[in-house]
Design a protein that fits this description.
Number of helices: 0
Number of domains: 1
Radius of gyration: 12 Å
Strand content: over 45%
Largest sheet: 5 strands, mixed, barrel
Number of strands: 6
Structural class: mainly beta
CATH topology: OB fold (Dihydrolipoamide Acetyltransferase, E2P)
Length: 91
């Protein structure tokens, strides 16, 4: 799957991309921490959400793979996350 294939409110079986840059980090109402990053592949860019203990594990330029993740549109931006049951790993 490529970034151009992501759809609103859909499962992401497997996606490989590169981290371009990091955006904000915040603590949400539930107490969970989340950091946003811009990722890209040859088809485009999207926002990656990195959760809790995985914050700090990745660097700009890292190739990552998401398996069984989730994608959705938020403020006209495609967002992808490992979600509750998926995985996010560095290649």
């Amino acid at each position: 799957m490529e970034l151009k294939d992501l759809e609103d409110k859909k499962q992401v079986d497997i996606l490989q991309a590169k981290i371009v840059s990091f955006l904000d980090e915040e603590t949400i109402a539930s107490g969970a921490k989340v950091q946003r990053a811009i990722i890209e592949d040859s088809s485009g860019q999207a926002i990656l959400k990195i959760w809790n203990e995985q914050i700090g594990e990745f660097s700009e330029g890292d190739e990552i793979v998401i398996q069984k993740g989730y994608s959705y549109l938020f403020k006209d931006e495609m967002v992808v996350s490992s979600g509750k049951f998926g995985t996010l790993k560095k290649l």
